[in-house]
Specification:
Radius of gyration: 33 Å
Largest sheet: none
Number of domains: 1
Distance between the termini: 114 Å
Number of strands: 0
Structural class: mainly alpha
Order of helices and strands: H
Strand content: under 5%
């Protein structure tokens, strides 16, 4: 009878160890995914800001191009 109890305890420990390994693997996966998403989001924000700046500079260049020259001597 004690042999079966020892065997059952060993199976429980083995199962617990296996599930803890899976939990650690899942936590590492979540952490890695979080880092990748954060870096990607930061890169996208920079690209969006750069596009917005070029859009504004382009609009200003168009306004300057349509300005009439001033007569500075009058």
């Amino acid at each position: 009878m004690q042999g079966q109890e020892v065997q059952i305890k060993q199976q429980k420990i083995s199962l617990l160890h296996k599930s803890m390994t899976e939990i650690w693997a899942a936590l590492i996966g979540v952490a890695a995914t979080t880092v990748v998403v954060a870096v990607s989001n930061n890169s996208s924000r920079k690209e969006r800001d750069i596009r917005e700046l070029f859009h504004r500079v382009n609009a200003l260049e168009k306004q300057v191009a349509t300005m009439k020259p001033r007569n500075w001597r009058s």
